Task: structure prediction
Amino acid sequence: MISALSHDQFIAKPNPEIWSIVEEFDHVIKSASALYSGLKVSPFILKWEFGKPNRPMRSYDEVMSRYTEKIATVNGKALAPSPFRAEEGKVFDKQDMLNHWASTGVKFEKRMNKWSDKNLDKVLLTHPLLGKMMVRELLYFTHFHTNHHLTSLKKKVSS
Result:
């Protein structure tokens, strides 16, 4: 989908309030890479740093509901924290981004296969909007978040 775009289509910003395709794609890459980086840390170290869960695991739907509620508290517009937004004036290379996205997916899968179900449910990481979450919940969020942006990117590409 993205690989077929011209450079101008890739960087075009239809409106100052709306991310360009490259900005949105950069956001998705940064978001997935952040979770991948967190998964590289030993569960033992993460338990020491973030403690243990103090509540039951949330289901996929509960995580999405909580995210939707949090977005509503910021006037319905979720602004990604600056580390997850495209830098102003940055020049992007589409092929480098596509390669990075592909390698992140491969690395993410390998990293996930090293985690036990027990640790997915007992280890905490932090989300910038939702706070401490069990790793499984962050995986639910990442699935939802990535699909949300994939849908948005598909709309932008087809328009």
The chain has one domain: 15-82+110-158. The chain is about 60% helix and 5% strand. The mean pLDDT is 90. The longest helix spans residues 135-158.
